Hints:
Layout: E1 12-15, H1 25-38, H2 46-50, H3 57-68, H4 74-91, H5 97-108, E2 112-117, H6 121-131, E3 139-142, H7 154-163, E4 170-174, H8 177-185, E5 189-192, E6 210-211, H9 221-228
Parallel strand pairs: 1-2, 1-4, 2-3, 4-5, 5-6
Helix pairs in contact: 1-4, 3-4, 4-6, 5-9
Amino acid sequence: MLGHMSTSRATSVIFDLDGTLVDSEPNYYEAARQVLARYGLPDFTWEQHARFIGIGTRETLEILDRQHTLTGPVEEMLAAKNAAYLELARASTEAFPEMRKFVERLHAEGVRMAVASGSSRSAIEAILAGTGLDSFMELVVSAEEVEHGKPEPDVFLEAARRLGAAPADCVILEDAPPGAAAAHAAGMRCIAVPYLPQSADDPAFATAGLLFPGGQREFSAERAYEWTTTRA
């Protein structure tokens, strides 16, 4: 049992992947830009992409299709984007150094960990393997495996179910408002590390128990560990 815990119940930690554990958003943007240009949306900008950070790939494409009447079926575009992203991700994806320290500290103390992400399972597994984070994670849940993506709580609740953990005993690490909203809806504690610091005042982040407004440049593995392993 962890020395800082004030109860015998064990805490499990569930991480979002993209923008939280790893800096994958540039690769997601480039994959989206390449694919959307082929399906009727040229000049897709980073500003447009940023509006979808924290939302699953399928949901993003469905919204863009409704807005712009893209020229291919969503399933086809999804497969093309996943393929383009995997190629980019395998070439270069970096874990955030302080977040890696947090994972290693939790692992050393025997805390169970999982990843719950809006990405495809193949993308999640490729990134975790490429960064070496796979050895720390007990399981992975993709939003493609549940009925609703974030901001609905399905992916986090499924991760907790597979861990055999009660939602109240789970801590979520998130970088985007939809993920913070999903954690709140799941009845889980949340550490928010905004990928876009300008989004730190989003109402969804107000539900987080611990917020690092400056994002990764402010994130502290030690502070996150103390908060995670201490119950009110």
